[in-house]
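Below is our example:
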Amino acid sequence: MANCGPTDPRCGWGSAARRAHLRRAHAARRPWPGRLTAGTVALRFPQEAPTRLVGALVDGLASALPDAVALPDAVARSATSDARSATGTRSDVGAVRLLVDRALLGAAEEGLLAADVVRLARLLVSAPANVVTPARAAAWSAGVARRTGLTCSVLGPEQVRADGFGALGAIGAGSVNGPHLVCLDHIVSADAPTLSLVGKGITFDSGGLSLKPPAAMQGMRMDMAGAAAVLAVMAGLRRAGCAVNVHAVLPFAENLPGPGSVRPGDVVTAWNGTRIQILDTDFEGRVVLADALALAASRSPDLVVDLATLTYQAEIALGPDIGAVMGPDGDAADVLVRAATETGEPMWRLPWAERYLDQVRTPFGVRNHPLRDTGRALTAALFLGEFVPRTVPWVHCDISGPAWRGTPSDDGATGFGARTLLRLATGPEDRLGQAIP
């Protein structure tokens, strides 16, 4: 499968699909305050209009609204009222009706749900870090689970340490707001394929004892964008009629300096027994993901996907709009890129560069810093791969570039990756089978 994007004519992007993508991208970056607040919008399409175009256009229109309307029991409003208050988001929208032909209603509903899922992810990420603490994020996750028919388990700081999640526990040890580990399950049947989703949930990243410069710290509430996207997708699965089992692992932590902070040079033990030398506490994302990926892979799912704001070098390589996809299994990576292409979220494969494994491995385990200034997006992925057995299809997506738009003062979360994961979970059931090498 070739790398695909909205400007690549080789990948089946017709002019109509491209225009729909651009409309949705415009809505994501420039909300319409004061415009789409009440009234009726009638959408008229020719009979031969592709259903994907209909869904994309409804998605783009609905993304401009502040409240989710398709998620059951007003999940977004009830689960995140504090976040909405903190970001200044108001529910002052009157009745907005989108009229489509009955034959296209299913596609329109899919677009509406996608918009709701993305909007929920944006709300969580844009909220201040003093509102979205690890404990509050875990509580919201449990609330979403109750309202949407998911099963949920939450480990608090003491349980995280007691159950052997030494990597997550180490990163969260410097903050008075201790780490939490959330597991969510959408269960269809024992015979259904299983998709595991993992999202990086650093609710604020100061760098720890390897402290960031002040300017680099200002926008670090966005470091939970991966976990927020996964949580939002899980909230929409029942409404979407998802026919596969989906398991989510969300490690939440604050990375702060404090009396209990992990030190550069410390060695900790991850949940799967691998020892990690933490040379740089600002390379914390891969450390918490180590525990989460090991747990997700232990279920032997058909596919594991992790979403993370992991390395600035992914943005250096691909710019601010494109997610970087890496993994040892080409088929698994192609499955994710294909789902991204279908939703208009640009993703591009970077190489799985095993020649750099010596920058990750040590005689006793792994280290979280490659001791090199180049290729860090690649070595970060290689580090994560040490926690997923090669028998388990897995793909990593670094969303450091496209996860945020604007200044740190803006509510700039984009919800990038949520549409792709929703499509992956609700698309053809045999798609997960295509990821198995």
In short: The chain has 16 helices and 15 strands.
